[in-house]
Write the structure tokens for this entry.
Amino acid sequence: MSQKIKRSNALISVGIISLFFWNSCEGGTFFTKTIDNKSSETITVKLFTIYGDNNTVMINSNEAKEIYWDDHIGSFVDENYNCTEMIDSVVLSISSGKKLTKDIMNPDQWIRNSKGGRNAREDCVFTITNNDFQ
């Protein structure tokens, strides 16, 4: 094999390895949305996001469950991100037939916990208590 071919093969190999390494290091943001049911009721939640709908989730009394999670490779948010940005709508039912008076679509009602960096996280929690029912 000639010196030119060996050098060409070596450069191609280095290029492929570099691309693989560069792609495997790409970060992003992992998003979660959790309902923390601190009430005495069982709550059923179906969340519709801008990406489509998720499964229906039943949350027992004094239980917290993630109702949404998604990993967005190469996507990062800034300080203006709010917990309801990805939510299109929510269907929420209470076991006793009561109505939720706390607005789940109000971003101020969610607790946002952020972790920046290459593997960023945006964890959002909406807490429901007995005082939030009518």
In short: The beta strands are 28-37, 43-49, 52-53, 57-59, 63-73, 87-94, 110-115, 119-128. The CA atoms of residues 47 and 104 lie 11 Å apart. The first strand starts at residue 28 and ends at 37.
